[in-house]
């Protein structure tokens, strides 16, 4: 039986369908979850997709963090369920304090949409175990508030404990500290990533198939855990 | 009805690109004495009942959890005179 991976739709989510499609292509069973419920529908893992939940009002991810589904997601994350926040989902995870730091407006103020090269530096998290260490990949990036910020002590700790899962290569597109594109929590089950792997999973669409390994990684993680 | 104002500003060490853009525009318009601009948010809360210490404590709790992200922002809470 394939693993059930939830994808939360908030008002203003954009990439929920693409995330569901990526999960299906990877061999999982996508499960649509609505923000207004607390019922996780028996899922094994969850994706918080990209978009502009609640119109990015107040701060990106700040209102979504208090939606009913997030109280269940936060509890499940603390019990070890794999949680993957992409773009707006990464912002929601930081606002939820499941991940340290914050994502602020791009230092140059422009919305960026480009194919972005990344280096995968952590191959032990629930969503990166299928990569080779220092593997370079190219996936789409599109954000207006993607500049990762944390205090120096937190940044040092993230580096020392191998919790930076991916860094921008060649160009830092948004002013993120230490070129950080994605991080994980101490346990490795909660992962946030600013670029969009769900847009690079199928031949003919997107710059590569490099995004697929994020989704096959969590399926392997779930099989190995059961 | 009493009004409580919560001001939220990015911490001084956090880059404020929006403030910088406003600053450059102001200078372009000839406001040459404006040396620096930082942009923040102001929330006006109309409060039912007395604004005593307990009510202010609740408002600080709201500011801490929702109105501001204390990783990157500072806030102040004050009662506005009618």
From TrEMBL, chain B:
SUPFAM superfamilies: PurS-like
InterPro entries assigned: PurS, PurS-like_sf
Presence of the UniProt keyword Ubl conjugation in the record: no
Any Gene Ontology biological process: purine nucleotide biosynthetic process
GO molecular function, one term: ATP binding
Gene3D superfamilies assigned: Phosphoribosylformylglycinamidine synthase subunit PurS
Any Pfam family hit: PurS
Alphabetical UniProt keywords: ATP-binding, Cytoplasm, Ligase, Nucleotide-binding, Purine biosynthesis
Protein name: Unannotated protein
Organism: freshwater metagenome
């Amino acid at each position: 039986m394939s693993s059930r991976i939830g994808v939360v739709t908030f008002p203003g989510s954009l990439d929920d369908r693409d995330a569901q499609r990526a999960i299906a292509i990877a061999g999982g069973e996508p499960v649509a979850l609505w923000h207004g419920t607390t019922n996780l529908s028996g899922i094994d893992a969850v994706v918080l997709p990209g978009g502009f939940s609640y119109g990015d009002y107040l701060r990106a991810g700040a209102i979504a963090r208090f939606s009913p589904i997030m109280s269940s997601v936060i509890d499940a994350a603390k019990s070890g369920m794999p949680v993957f926040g992409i773009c707006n989902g990464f912002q929601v995870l930081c606002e939820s304090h499941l991940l340290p730091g914050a994502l602020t407006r791009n230092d140059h103020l422009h919305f960026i949409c480009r194919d972005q090269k990344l280096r995968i530096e952590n191959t032990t998290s629930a969503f990166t175990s299928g990569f080779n260490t220092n593997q370079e990949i190219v996936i789409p990036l599109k954000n207006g508030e993607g500049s990762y910020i944390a205090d120096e002590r937190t940044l040092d700790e993230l580096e020392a404990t191998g919790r930076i899962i991916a860094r921008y290569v060649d160009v830092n597109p948004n002013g993120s500290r230490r070129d950080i594109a994605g991080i994980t929590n101490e346990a490795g089950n909660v992962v946030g990533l600013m670029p969009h792997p769900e847009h690079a999973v199928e031949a003919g669409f997107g710059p590569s198939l490099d995004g697929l390994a994020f989704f096959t990684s969590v399926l392997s993680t779930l099989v190995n855990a059961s | 009805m009493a009004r409580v104002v919560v001001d939220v500003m990015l911490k001084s060490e956090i880059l404020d690109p929006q403030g910088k853009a406003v600053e450059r525009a102001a200078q372009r318009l000839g406001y040459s004495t404006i040396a620096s601009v930082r942009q923040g948010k102001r929330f006006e809360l109309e409060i039912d009942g007395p604004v005593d210490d307990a009510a202010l404590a609740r408002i600080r709790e709201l500011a801490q959890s929702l109105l501001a992200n204390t990783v990157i922002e500072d806030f102040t809470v004050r009662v506005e005179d009618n």
